[in-house]
Every structure is written in C-alpha cells, then in structure tokens.
Design goal:
GAF-like_dom_sf; IclR family transcriptional regulator; two-stranded antiparallel ribbon; alpha+beta; about 20% strand; 9 helices; transcription; about 250 residues; DNA-binding; elongated; HTH_MetabolicPath_Reg
C-alpha cells in the first residue's frame, strides 16, 4: 500500500476529504483555471495524489478538465451555493448577534435593510436601560437620516460606485435622525459582496462620548464581521480595519 493510501486508511478516509477540499481551496478570486503544476504548488501535494483526487472531483462535477489540460471549478459548487443561500434565514443568525451586542454595550441594537428611499428595521433588541432609543421592528426611517441609512447608501453599489465607498467600515451620526440620539452602524455582506443590511447600535448621544465610541465601534465591527461570515460573505474589510490602529471615524 502506498504512503498516501495508507494514510487515508488510517484516518478513515478523512485525510482524502481534506486533500480534496485543499484542491478546491487552491482556487482564488480571479482564477479562470489552474494547471496541475500550479495546483501542486499551492497545495504542496504530489501530482500523483492530486490526479487521483481530481478524477473523483471531475466525476462529481466539482472540477472541470479543460481541453488545454488545465482545471476549473465545476457546476456542482454553484449548485451547493444555491442550496446554501436558499436555506439561509436571517432570523436564524441576526437576533443572536443583536443580543450579544446589547449585552456588550447596553445600548439598543438593530438590523436594517433598504426599502426604496427608506430603511426598515427588520430586527431589534432594546437596551436594558430605562433611557434608550425607541425604535421598533418594522419601523420605516428615511434612508438619508442616521448611521444605518448612510451605511445602506454608502455600501450599495447601485447608489454609490465602489470606488467612492468609504474606506472605514462604519459610520457614526449624532442627532441626525432624532435630537440627542446617536448611532454607529456597519455593513453586513453576503456572497459576492452583496449588501445584506446594516447593523447598528443606538442610544442617547450623551452615552456616545469620544471616550466610549472606540470600544463600541470595535464590538460593532466584530459583530458585523461575524454576521457577514455566517451569511456566507467576505469579512476581509473588517479584518483589515482591525489589523491597523485607526481613530474613530
């Protein structure tokens, strides 16, 4: 028995699955196809092992072999992606994120989506404090008022061309929607950087002081990144922002 097949047998087949996934993960954004040499370089596996796995992946339509001998991702991945998106329910993922934000900040947390020239509050968890921002699930608010509305404008490519989108992944407003109410909001993305909504925390402006805003923004961005990943999106914009030391915007 060869070393590779012996390893697979000892691992109960798990090693073979990991290698097959490594081949699929070798493809990156912008790759139309990959040669066998490039797959071997990226996966650090023997070509003989790769060819055995490729035969099964091609058979199952996960990989397509082109006439020039290179390989590209197959239609089965698109099929699985469609199943994933159709099964994905916002109400399975958004409320837990909002509850966590409220627990961490003691301010109200909301999730908004765009509806024409307005934004609608799809999910809301109130602050435990007696003095708080009073917004309810289902409320319609003008799109151009408040941090969440500005996020929905700034990160929607149909409203703001991507080159003009803000570099920072959050927006702060004070007294814009209602006097003495402040909010911090961040975008939430799905697959292919599709904007799914805006995640926001809001409350009395007096509690959004320059000293407290950085910690609030950090928790909000962590929640937006978590929700983006849960919805199948790319959270790189949040990770890149966290990796640098920046002032609150």
């Amino acid at each position: 028995m060869s070393e590779a097949s012996d390893s697979d047998a000892k691992a109960g087949g798990v090693a073979a699955v990991e290698r097959a996934i490594a081949i699929l993960n070798a493809f990156r954004a912008g790759d139309s196809s990959l040669s066998l040499n490039e797959i071997a370089r990226r996966t650090k596996m023997y070509k003989s092992t790769i060819l055995r796995l490729l035969a099964t992946l091609v058979q199952e339509h996960c990989i397509v072999r082109l006439d020039d001998g290179s390989y590209q991702l197959g239609s089965m991945l698109l099929h699985w992606g469609g199943l994933y998106q159709s099964a994905l329910r916002l109400d399975d993922h958004v409320p837990p994120i909002l509850r966590r934000l409220v627990q961490e900040t003691e301010e109200g947390a909301s999730f908004f989506t765009r509806e024409g020239n307005h934004r609608v509050c799809l999910f809301r968890v109130d602050s435990p404090r007696s003095i708080r921002d009073h917004i309810r699930t289902g409320d319609l608010v003008p799109l151009d008022k408040g941090a969440a509305g500005r996020i929905l404008i700034a990160f929607d490519p149909t409203l703001t061309p991507p080159p003009q989108a803000p570099a920072q992944p959050y927006i702060i407003t004070i007294g814009e929607r209602e006097p003495d109410i402040a909010a911090i909001a961040a975008p939430v993305f799905g697959p292919q950087r599709n904007l799914r909504g805006a995640l926001a925390i809001s409350g009395p402006a007096a509690r959004f002081s320059p000293e407290l805003i950085p910690a609030m923004a950090t928790r909000l961005l962590a929640a937006a990144a978590d929700l983006t990943r849960r919805l199948g999106g790319d959270a790189t914009i949040f990770d890149d922002w966290h990796s640098t030391d920046r002032p609150a915007a």
